[in-house]
């Protein structure tokens, strides 16, 4: 799934000697810092301001340390790749050299990638301020400037079970059971609830999708990739205005059309992923027949209350789900996808519905109801 941007950017090493600041290495034609406050904001604290007090919590790695951790970025250790660059599995030693090494994930940004210094800086600042069990933890970073260009790396806790996207659409992993899908979405909802209501300021994720939901060794889900995160509106403002960025198929239509970013923009994206867990299909699949390429257009032909509803369900579930619970999730997705943002539910309602569906599913015999129900 490709990201869309309304801009492009171009890109003997020297180690950065201090924590990254807003003034450093700003590409000329990248929009304003995506996590900074909008002009005339009335909020008491912003992410950059809070970052100044908490940046010492992050470890500053040298490039040599990360080369050693990844065997010089060996492609055999590559566990992910995207427009931002590549992600490697690595092992880093404790800062004092004593104790056991730690397995981590190391994101190495492309020198000339579309997501450059600004997105890297946004993530460093945000994850130094925000801390929640449903957000991937940032261990540290590396910033190097030299004649051959800039080097920007992020070091995260390692998530052993890859992403929700890998499990839903990959061919090398077993299909996710019904209840596991619901619990993953509940974890993700709790992460979004924290962004929307758990900080001194509102944060809009802006790029919620299945590939940004990572899974640990126990299949607990955490949100990742905060390079596009943005502080939400303050005071009596209803939105922040920004150049639309995100991923086709997930971004809210009003945001794409107007550039008006709201908390409910994340809710729309969440609704798209709810339909992905129901159907086992991506938001957009160009290799399908024309009528089925756009997931949201296709599912409209099979309403949650109709006898045909079960036609959309992921065949890999092998009918091992309670149909009534699946209908409730589809109805929740439909509410998240309402055209008017004000009509979409907030995260507290979403969490409540998911918890109810999980209880119902765990209490059922997992034998589907008849197709006539």
UniProtKB/TrEMBL annotation:
Keywords: ATP-binding, Cell membrane, Membrane, Nucleotide-binding
SUPFAM superfamilies membership: Protein kinase-like (PK-like) (SSF56112)
Binding, ATP: 108
InterPro entries xrefs: Kinase-like_dom_sf, Plant_Ser_Thr_Prot_Kinase, Prot_kinase_dom, Protein_kinase_ATP_BS, Ser-Thr/Tyr_kinase_cat_dom
GO molecular function: ATP binding; protein kinase activity
Organism annotation: Carnegiea gigantea
GO cellular component terms, semicolon-separated: plasma membrane
PROSITE patterns named among the record's database cross-references: PROTEIN_KINASE_ATP, PROTEIN_KINASE_DOM
Region (Disordered): 1-48
Protein localization: Cell membrane
Top-level division of the source organism's lineage: Eukaryota
Name used for this protein in its record: Protein kinase domain-containing protein
Pfam families: PK_Tyr_Ser-Thr
Domain Protein kinase residues, every copy: 73-359
ATP-binding in keyword set: yes
Alphabetical list of PANTHER family matching this protein: OS01G0588500 PROTEIN-RELATED
Main location: membrane
Low complexity bias: start-end ranges: 36-46
CDD domains named among the record's database cross-references: STKc_IRAK
């Amino acid at each position: 799934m490709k990201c869309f941007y309304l801009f492009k950017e171009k890109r003997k090493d020297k180690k950065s000697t201090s924590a990254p600041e807003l003034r450093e290495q700003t590409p000329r034609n990248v929009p304003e810092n995506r996590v900074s406050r909008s002009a005339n904001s009335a909020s008491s604290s912003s992410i950059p301001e809070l970052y100044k007090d908490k940046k010492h919590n992050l470890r500053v790695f040298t490039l040599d340390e990360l080369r050693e951790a990844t065997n010089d970025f060996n492609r055999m250790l590559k566990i992910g790749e995207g427009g931002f660059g590549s992600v490697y599995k690595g092992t880093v030693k404790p800062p004092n050299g004593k104790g056991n090494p730690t397995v981590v994930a190391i994101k190495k940004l492309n020198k000339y990638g579309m997501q450059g210094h600004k997105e890297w800086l946004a993530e460093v600042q945000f994850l130094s301020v925000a801390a929640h069990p449903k957000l991937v933890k940032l261990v540290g970073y590396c910033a190097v400037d030299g004649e051959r260009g800039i080097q920007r790396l992020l070091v995260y806790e390692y998530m052993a079970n890859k992403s929700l996207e890998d499990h839903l659409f990959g061919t090398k992993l077993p299909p996710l059971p019904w209840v596991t899908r619901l619990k993953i979405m509940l974890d993700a909802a709790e992460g979004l609830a924290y962004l929307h209501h758990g900080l001194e300021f509102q944060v809009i994720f802006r790029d919620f999708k299945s590939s940004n939901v990572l899974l640990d060794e126990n299949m607990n889900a955490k949100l990742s990739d905060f390079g596009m995160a943005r502080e939400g509106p303050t005071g009596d403002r209803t939105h922040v205005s920004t150049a639309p960025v995100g991923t086709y198929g997930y971004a809210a239509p009003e945001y794409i059309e107007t550039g008006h970013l709201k908390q409910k923009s994340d809710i729309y994206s969440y609704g798209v992923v709810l339909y992905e867990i129901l159907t086992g299909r991506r938001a957009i699949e160009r290799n399908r027949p024309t009528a089925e390429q756009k997931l949201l257009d296709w599912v409209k032909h099979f309403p949650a209350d109709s006898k045909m509803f079960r036609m959309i369900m992921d065949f890999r579930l092998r009918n091992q789900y309670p149909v009534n619970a699946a209908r409730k999730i589809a109805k929740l997705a439909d509410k998240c996808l309402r055209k008017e943002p004000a009509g979409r539910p907030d995260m507290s309602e979403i969490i409540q519905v998911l918890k109810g569906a999980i209880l119902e599913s765990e209490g059922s015999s997992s034998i589907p109801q008849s197709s006539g129900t």
